[in-house]
Amino acid sequence: MTSVIISGAGGQLGKACIDRMTFQEDYSLFTFDHSQLDITDQDKIHRTLAALPQVKYWINCAAYTKVDDAEKDEKTATLYNALAPGYLARACWEAGVHLIYYSTDYVYDNHL
To answer: Fewer Cβ within 10 Å of end Cβ, the chain: N or C?
Structure first.
């Protein structure tokens, strides 16, 4: 059976994703909220992938979503919204796992 990881499971997007995935009987679903898996912890990401059987997909729903606070705390926002997705991408690539990542035009307004 194929395994799927959902990080950011405690947030609005994560909960919606879990609701959708629970209808899929062909998957083993592993969900983690921030207290269980901080996506900025590279070692924990690697240990999680190594510990779970047959992970094929990692759906990342974790992010720093406090838009107004992000302007005041750019360092934390950058860590969670730019660096941590890179950590996930690298670990998934190394493990042969497909990473699914969500973004928004609310923060990035698509003006080039």
So the answer is: C
